[in-house]
Structure formats: structure tokens, C-alpha cells
């Protein structure tokens, strides 16, 4: 079996619980077809660079899997048919990196830095 990383974007008007439910659903599709999902991450509702199907934002999700190609093709087929999924990207990798993805690492680093100075921490000049 091969190692894969999957990223998909779901519509902005679904709830966070529904977006996380999509992750579980597609993880189950891989598992049912002989694969296994080693890690999943919900990246949150993010603004996209351009509109997709009249949506300015989207729920981003990420999965790492070890699955046969037939299982990945079936999952991608079902994602293409699902009305809440707007985009899918699957990449075959040689090995999975340890720890959280780069998106989660950047988010954690931002949280540790504290509040931004340009957002009202300085007194206003009138």
C-alpha cells in the first residue's frame, strides 16, 4: 500500500460539526476499502484566494492515509459526487512527517506570539 495526504475544501455554509463529520465519513470509506487513516486535522473555516462556486470561504480538512490506490480512487469519486465538497487534492508521499502539519504549526506559533500590535494595542492618533 502507498502513503497519501488528502486535503479537501467543504462549502462555507455547513457547520463545523458537519465538516468534521465529512472527515470521519471519508476516513471510513478508506477503511472499508482496505486502507487506514493515520491522522486527521480540521484546519477551520478559511478565506480562499478566489471564489469557488460563489463561496468566498471554505472548511479545510487534511488526512494522512495508508491505502491501496483503488480505495483512494473510490474516496475521490465519492468526494466528487458529494455536494458539500468543493475541491480535493491527493498527493502520494514517500513517508509521513511526524507531528502536526505545517498549517497547524503556523497556527500554534501565531497563538503563542500574542496579540498583534497593529490591531488597536496602540493609542489612536486623531
Automatic annotation (TrEMBL):
Region (Disordered): 97-126
GO biological process, one term: translation
Residue stretches of biased makeup (Basic and acidic residues): 108-126
A Pfam family hit: Ribosomal_S6
UniProt KW Plastid keyword: no
UniProt similarity note: Belongs to the bacterial ribosomal protein bS6 family.
Entry-linked InterPro entries: Ribosomal_bS6, Ribosomal_bS6_sf, Ribosomal_S6_plastid/chlpt, Transl_elong_EF1B/ribsomal_bS6
GO terms under cellular component: cytosolic small ribosomal subunit
Entry GO MF terms: small ribosomal subunit rRNA binding; structural constituent of ribosome
Function: Binds together with bS18 to 16S ribosomal RNA.
Keyword annotations from UniProtKB, A to Z: Ribonucleoprotein, Ribosomal protein, RNA-binding, rRNA-binding
Protein name, entry field: Small ribosomal subunit protein bS6
UniProt KW 4Fe-4S keyword: no
Signal peptide: none
